[in-house]
Amino acid sequence: MHAWPASEVPALPGQGRDLRIHDTATGGPITLDPGPVARIYVCGITPYDATHIGHAATYNAFDLVQRVWLDTKRQVHYVQNVTDVDDPLLERAERDGIDWAALAEQETQLFREDMTALRMLPPRQYIGAVEAIPGIVPLVERLRDLGAAYELEGDTYFSVEADPHFGQVSHLDAAAMRLLSAERGGDPDRPGKKNPLDPMLWSAAREGEPSWDGGSLGRGRPGWHIECVAIALDHLGMGFDVQGGGSDLVFPHHEMGASHAQALTGEFPMAKAYVHAGMVALHGEKMSKSKGNLVFVSRLRRDGVDPAAIRLALLAHHYRADWEWTDQVLRDAVTRLGHWRAAVSRPDGPSAEALVDEIREALANDLDAPAALTAVDHWAVAQEQQGGTDMGAPGVVSRAVDALLGVAL
Length: 409
Description:
Elements: E1 20-23, E2 28-31, E3 37-42, H1 53-71, E4 75-82, H2 87-96, H3 100-117, E5 125-128, H4 129-145, E6 149-152, E7 155-158, H5 174-183, E8 200-204, E9 220-222, H6 224-235, E10 240-246, H7 250-265, E11 271-277, E12 280-282, E13 285-286, H8 297-302, H9 307-315, E14 323-324, H10 327-344, H11 353-364, H12 369-385, H13 393-405
Parallel strand pairs: 3-4, 3-10, 4-5, 10-11, 12-14
Antiparallel strand pairs: 1-2, 6-7, 7-8, 8-9, 12-13
């Protein structure tokens, strides 16, 4: 599966700072010190309703991670999946009377177009669950052979008790885990499971649903968590730098994925940092497909909204915060974009050296994009009120905003 084209990232003078970021697993900030190649895995969409503002906010956060690393002169190995076969996708396809594979491709292509418009840097590998199946099956078989998986009426489950570190991503108690498992695709009440929290690794073929050859597992399709594990281990290996996604993935998805990988390899941890973006609400409720209260990037673009303004609206909120999308949020972003573009359109201005340093410092401090935006605001106000004599300053500001914030002025 192919990703989307990369926008050029301008080179800036000097060098950025190492990223200090909040790690869900430890509950506090850690300073990441990747090698020459920083490794990041971000969980992708289930393609049946792309791309809403909640999606965009999440991928914007991890785009900033990439940009901070690139500014430190590192390379970035970024991997993202597409869950292109799963129950919600199949249910939506049946509801709309469309082939599930056609729906997945249609929505994935729309996601690519939105990511391109928003100047999100693409992953090096962009991999669908279906194309990953040949790599998933051997992992499930291996877990079974290790005694970390078991069969139940033809389905194969992972035993959470096989990983001594289970629970060290989310730090939730059993009752909270069980509740979230039921809400987020698990089946804690299924009779016969060794532990109500045990997640599906391989679902046996069911009438009317797609299935694939699972070798000794029989025909079927993969569970949600093992999909990401297979892709991440294949391309990044254990101990990669950042596992990312929305905060709704902390449990069960990232908890279970970590346990799968740790049981498979005997190594700990799967990722050095677990980083999660906050949720976006609309009209007081979390924006979600099930609630039907989605604001789509593609619809905003069709309505003539500049993608740079959409990106500024996202950047105005700290990535870990839960926030609400409103018309005023977008209006503020459009106004800000206009001020910035007017400021950099002049032939000279106040020195930009301190501004670049402020943006770098803000982003290195747990991706504090709102502080970075405020710094640019101050420069733009100084430009408007008093101007300056630095002939290169507007160009430096324009390149810095593009390179570090992904906003083209």
